[in-house]
Every structure is written in C-alpha cells, then in structure tokens.
C-alpha cells in the first residue's frame, strides 16, 4: 500500500512538471509572437472610373500568419486636401486574413484610401492614392506630383495652420476620436502614428485644446507612448460644446506635424 502511494505521488509530480513546462513554453512563445509587427497589404486599383463599383481589400498578417481575428478594420477615404471630410467604411471579415468593402466614387479627382486595422493590441494603417475618372484639376495635379517627388520624408511640409493638409512623405496619423464625451469627466485621447508603414516610436505628442469660450486660452495635454506608435493622454473638458483638438507631433529627426479635429462634448 505504501509503495502504491509513492507511485501515485511520483506520477502526479511528473504530470505537474509537464504542465508547468508546457505553460512556460507557451508563455515564451507568446511574447515572441507579440513582438512581430502587424502588416496590411492594400489591394485597390490605381485608376477607377466614376460611379464604378470597386472592391477595397486588405490582407492582414503577423509574421507568416494570416490574421483572421482583427478586432476592427475600416477603410478611410478622402479627396486630395479634404481629409477633414473623410468617409469611414467598415470592412467585412472574410475569415481568411482578408477584409473587404465596396464603394463608388461620384466624381473625378485624386483620392486617398487608408485602411485602419486594430488587431492583437496592435494598429497599422497603410494608404494608397488612386485616380478617379479624369483625376484632379490641373493645380491639384501639379501639387500632387510635387508632393510625390519630395524625397525629404522626415521634413515638415507646408500646410494650412491647424489644418489636416498633406503630411510628410511616409507619415500617417490616426486620431481615435472618442465617443460620448462628457464635461467634467476624464477623457482618454489616443493617436496612432506611423512612418513608412511602421510604428513611429519615441515621438513627442501633445494635444492642444480650446473652444469658443477659451479660444484665447488654449489648454495642453501631454501624451505618453503606451505601445509602439500609440500615444495616449487624458483631459477633462470643463464645459459642454464643440471643442477643437489639435494633435502636435515632433521627433528628434525634425518631424513636425499637426492635425485638427472637432469634438462634441455633452453635459
């Protein structure tokens, strides 16, 4: 009986060690996997006819694995120099690592299509410029070509004060506009930054905030990098109303970008 007791104890101990070993291996593999960047490849025609139904497609991967479990995928579309009027289209998950949506363009022009992918606590947002119909007016076309030829990818490009404008070549910014913001409540403000489709790390990010009552006195909120390329800060809006939030981004390479957003604050 005593021998049987020790045999059972030995078997249970071996099982416990095996379980611990498996758990350790799993924990070792997960951090390695999480370090791999999220990639999204856009599959969109370079030229599109006016009123033509076109499919927007993004193939999402992490390392060699297709990502079929993205939390949110959206396509953002805007006309040249009109990012403030951009349109968001929710993508359908095809369960094979691809995400698609359909849209049409109702006029000639130069447009930008950017996909925003949130998956596995990571964010990526590659973009592509497309020509619709006859393209843009002559002046816009010249400005577009000048921008595309600019080799100073880390320098500041001229833009309207506090406007969206065109960012430096390779730079992308996505402000995750909070919903249901209330006055006198702490509000989280988050922006995702990329340079050449990789997270832009170690940047200095600040939010400049004001409304009609405080237009001569602007508030500032600093953001910290919570994850690679993701910067979060917080602010308590003192009143209800329409507030302007300008995201300011700088880094040691001379990058200096800003983007303006309007935020409705309820009582």
Automatic annotation (TrEMBL):
Disordered: annotated span: 132-168
Signal peptide: 1-18
Keywords, in A-Z order: Signal
InterPro entries with a match to the protein in the record: Ig-like_fold, YtkA-like_dom
Domain of life: Bacteria
Limits of the YtkA-like domain: 35-116, 168-248
PROSITE patterns in alphabetical order: PROKAR_LIPOPROTEIN
Composition bias, Basic and acidic residues: 143-168
Family matches, as Gene3D superfamilies: Immunoglobulins
Entry protein name: YtkA-like domain-containing protein
């Amino acid at each position: 009986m005593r021998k049987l007791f020790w045999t059972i104890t030995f078997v249970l101990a071996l099982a416990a060690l095996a379980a611990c070993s498996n758990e350790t291996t799993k924990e070792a593999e997960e951090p390695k996997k999480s370090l791999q960047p999220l990639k999204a490849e856009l599959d969109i025609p370079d030229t599109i006819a006016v009123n033509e139904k076109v499919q927007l497609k993004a193939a999402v991967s992490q390392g060699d694995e297709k990502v079929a479990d993205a939390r949110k995928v959206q396509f953002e579309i805007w006309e040249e120099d009109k990012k403030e009027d951009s349109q968001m289209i929710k993508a359908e998950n095809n369960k094979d690592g691809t995400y698609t949506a359909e849209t049409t363009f109702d006029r000639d022009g130069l447009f930008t299509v950017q996909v925003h992918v949130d998956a596995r606590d990571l964010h990526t947002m590659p973009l592509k410029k497309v020509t619709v119909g006859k393209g843009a007016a002559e002046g816009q076309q010249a400005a577009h070509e000048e921008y595309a030829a600019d080799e100073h990818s880390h320098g500041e490009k001229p833009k309207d004060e506090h406007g969206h404008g065109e960012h430096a070549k390779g730079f992308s910014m996505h402000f995750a506009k909070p919903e249901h913001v209330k006055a006198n409540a702490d509000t989280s403000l988050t922006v995702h930054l990329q340079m050449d489709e990789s997270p832009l790390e170690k940047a200095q990010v600040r939010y400049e905030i004001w409304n009609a009552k405080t237009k001569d006195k602007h508030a500032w909120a600093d953001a910290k990098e919570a994850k690679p390329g993701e910067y979060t800060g917080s602010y308590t809006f003192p009143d209800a109303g329409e507030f302007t939030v300008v995201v300011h981004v700088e880094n040691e390479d001379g990058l200096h970008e800003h983007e303006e957003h309007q935020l409705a604050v309820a009582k």
